[in-house]
Amino acid sequence: ACMAQSIMLNLAGQLIMLQRDRSGPQVRDKETPTVNKKLLPFCPPIVLAQCVENVWTTCRSNKKKRHLLEALWLSCGEAGMKVWLPLFPRDHRKPHSFLSRRIMLPFHINIYPLAVLFEDALVLGATNETVLYDGLQGSSEPLEALFPYCTVERTSQIYLHHILRQLLVRNLGEQSCASLPYFPHVLELMVHVVLEEEATSREPIPDPLLPTVAKFITEFPLFLQTIVHCARKTEYALWNYLFAAVGNPKDLFEECLMAQDLDTAASYLIILQNMEVPAVSRQHATLLFNTALEQGKWDLCRHMIRFLKAIGSGEMESPPPTPSTQ
């Protein structure tokens, strides 16, 4: 392409970029014959990445997903994958130079990448599983029965939670992927991974990321569902650390009622049952029961009646040491 801004070469696993040198005067005479036109010189080559096996990019454009379509995706073997992500200036600020407008982010996946679905934010690839032959034991067993073989399966994997996490570390939170159908699951995965790492760390973390992640996901309408789904899939011992960053579960329960999201409020009752005294659980369950009665949600009313009966009136006025199976 004559107007290309740069040329990229993969030489023995080194991804090299050659940029056009536009520092000098670039005035051309349109009447000059094409053969006599002087081509723009190139700047010294720059090594973008090493151990590169495959490179993916696309010429398609989508203003709503510019970060995904204008990125460069790299497969670097044992080092996992990398993405050379474009950064767009905010608030009409002065644009940066070409290199500073992009950032290289590494991330790991559990499959061997074969293709990238750019707009869907998916990596298509293959996984293999080693299987032993189920042969008869004995000296007459053929030699090939003693060796394992691999079964290969095509599959896909999402990666956005790795990318968003690294962007938040650099205060570069991005919302252009919020229209993806599985974006709530991406947010839940990100919260879960950060929570597991920080809450189980043996050493104190000077600058924890979970409060930043919590502030980021509050900008999305499914914030309340994301938190309760993550909590119910996490060990009870980590709940205090989680809700210290995202907010008191009683306040989140009340937000669900104000938003008329009664099903999510019912999920928060399980959290309250294990973190608060039974009197608090009865109070919030009764409030949800009355709201469900007013809206005619009879199935939820039945669940609340069973929940209130399960709590009972003779229980100890202290939270249980371990989460119940209710």
TrEMBL record:
Subcellular localization(s) per the UniProt record: Membrane
Pfam annotation, one family: RIC1
TM helices/strands, residue ranges: none
Chain ranges of the RIC1 C-terminal alpha solenoid region domain: 161-313
Record keyword Membrane present: yes
Keyword Membrane: yes
Keyword annotations: Membrane
InterPro entries for the chain: Ric1 (IPR040096), RIC1_C (IPR009771)
Protein name (Swiss-Prot/TrEMBL): Protein RIC1 homolog
